[in-house]
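README: folding subset

This subset contains proteins for which both the sequence and a predicted structure token string are available. Records are stored as plain text. Below is the entry for Reverse transcriptase (211 residues), shown exactly as it appears on disk.
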Amino acid sequence: MARFIPIKATSTLDQLARLYVDKIVSQYGVQVSIVSNRDPRFTSKFWPSLQKAMGTRLKFSTSFHPQTDGQYERTIQTLEDMLRACVFQLKGSWDTHLPLMEFAYNNNYQSSISMTPYEVLYERPCRTPVCWSEVGERKLVGHELVQITTNNIKLIRENLRIAQDRQKSYADKRRRNLEFQAGDQVFLKLSPWRGVIRFGRKGKLSPRYIV
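--- output ---
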């Protein structure tokens, strides 16, 4: 499940902690572990001490190793594509549409898990406003509200599908099937660790690849 919660760049750690408790802990319980980037707000003493008190293990992504939080990066990219595609078609400020985008994303089929994120968490399909008219619930909340919500969700889902197809197409173009024979020479990428001297050079000036 993905949660899209709007915050400000100036949000303090105390505000983030309150959001975490209100939006995550209250709905999903205390997490076993959290992987986050090395933002100073997450590496300060307060955040680790709070998670330690809750019994949550903190894990931080490592520089030059994006695979540690690759799923998070892909989700952010998808959200950016959705916002870019919908912001001019939906009225109002972009942050007012985050709940609908979160809803559409979590109820969108994902081939990697062969179901929607909602089904993984709750073990059942989600009833969406798109289906309300079939069971006669439209009168309960008003025709206009349901119609607007239904149209917006359809629009977001379509843009989400287009964004995913675009990302897949881009990845497929860059993907090449490599075949190697015994004795072939290949380049081996070296991670530029700080303070490590390789081949007489230190840090970023050291060779990135060796044969």
